[in-house]
Amino acid sequence: MKIPKTATENAMKKLIAAFVGSMALAAAPVALSAEATKELKMAYDADPVTLDIHEQLSGGILQLSHMTFDPLLRWTKDLGFEPRLAESWTRVDENTMRFKLREGVKFHSGNELTTADVKFTFDRLKQSQDFKAIFKPFSGINIIDDYTFELVTSEPYPLLLNTATYIFPFDSEFYSGQTEDGKDKSAILKHGNSFASENLSGTGPYTVTERKQGVRVEFERFDDYWDTESPGNVGKIVLTPIKENNTRVSALLSGGVDFIAPVPPNDLERIRNDKSANLVTMSGTRIILFHMNQKRVEAFKNPKVRQAIAYAINQEGIAAKIMKGFATPAAQMSPEGYQGYNESLTPRFDVAKAQELMKEAGYEDGFTITMMAPNNRYVNDDKIAQAVAAMLARINIKVDLKTLPKAQYWPEYDNRAADMMMIGWHADTEDSANFYEFLTFCPDADTGAGQYNAGNYCNPEIDALVQKANVETDLDKRAAMLQEVEQRLYDDAAFVPLHWQDLAWASKKNVNIEPVLNVMNFPYLGDLVVE
């Protein structure tokens, strides 16, 4: 999303914020199991900013969450769900889902997981500045017994399981009470020195044994980790933050580290050609697109003009030449795996067809527009905008292009300062409806609908179909509705889709990273095997 000013994107922008210095955890590390004897040295572009996983919603914190905690359930590679701390779940009624916890699961402190910990966590998430919006549909939690609980929504909510992937149970006993200086151990403090930001007791495969901002974070395998069927054999992980792309890649190729992320597009071939390295890429879920502002340009109100622009853009050419193959051409918002993904929709590049549509619409001679894009937010964003402007010239649309650093671009975007504007969006819920609600809904300042719809496109019938889908708990019926939404947006040329940005990771040959990678971009490192 911008990813606009959503909690996720704002958190990602703060990923390089300062840590508190090195510290020891209250939960002491334990001896490694006989099987977990391998060591992994990994380099990311930043280290997590806190140990309180409710303080910030970001990719780095979600990675930390999966290393040191465990969720009730987690995403699979094909965007399904697999049980983790919740071994099963059943729907009780339209508003209620019942979960059964695994028994005998231990926290790093030695305390045993029960539903009291789930309730403590649920209540804390509802108070978290970054997470409370995600949990707004939930009206409460019912505790049945020590291992059975129910999540309740205020109305039928088909994304209940999606949201449950964010519930990583906290050790309620460990995080309750006061510190020696009288501070509440359960407090969530943004960028503050809270107990939870410096101390950790989860149920995950690793404990944190050392932290030093900008230098290293050390993890050791938790000997009492509940998942005895995990193939993971890494006993120690050392995370080194390396912000500079070239330095990070060089660290891998020189043997200084075993695993890096992200891999910049310019270095893909360099890694592919190195016999000691292993490169894994996959299509991501962040859509890059252009809006066409119908309030600024009369011609954009004509669907034939919008369709002409859609036909004039060569998504496959942009993905191949500008993105160097590091993108998946798009004809819709929903990536494959999302419920709204409509497999019948494909890019429609056809200049002759575009010229014909412009003539039919009465704009054969074209017109002039302004265009804005960032030049340091998305991969090759300024080059993409230049290519799109050149493509539009072929249908006599002259473009006055301006690219800006992201800090200057987003205020301009909020002001709808150009006729066509670029944006990228990733759905927090990994669900199609999130795209439409923010990017194509009729703008409504009171409700926040269409908050980032810089095209001022408005189709109440499509909005109503999305809203109907949002309370449909039969997932097959819901998928059909969302796929119809994509079809209607495509037919209407509501926006100009470009591509989904790809993801890339690299490792030494003996580090088997592919099985633990996923499109959400938080590898399940607890299951990592080093040969």
UniProtKB/TrEMBL annotation:
Pfam families (UniProt xref)? SBP_bac_5
Q: Kindly state one GO CC term assigned in the UniProt record.
A: outer membrane-bounded periplasmic space
The signal peptide stretch is: 1-33
- In what residue span(s) does the Solute-binding protein family domain sit? 81-444
On whether Transmembrane helix is a keyword of this UniProt record, the answer is no
Q: Which residues form a coiled coil?
A: none
Q: Which GO terms describe its molecular function?
A: peptide transmembrane transporter activity
A biological process from GO: protein transport
Stated family: Belongs to the bacterial solute-binding protein 5 family.
Q: What is this protein called?
A: Peptide ABC transporter, periplasmic peptide-binding protein
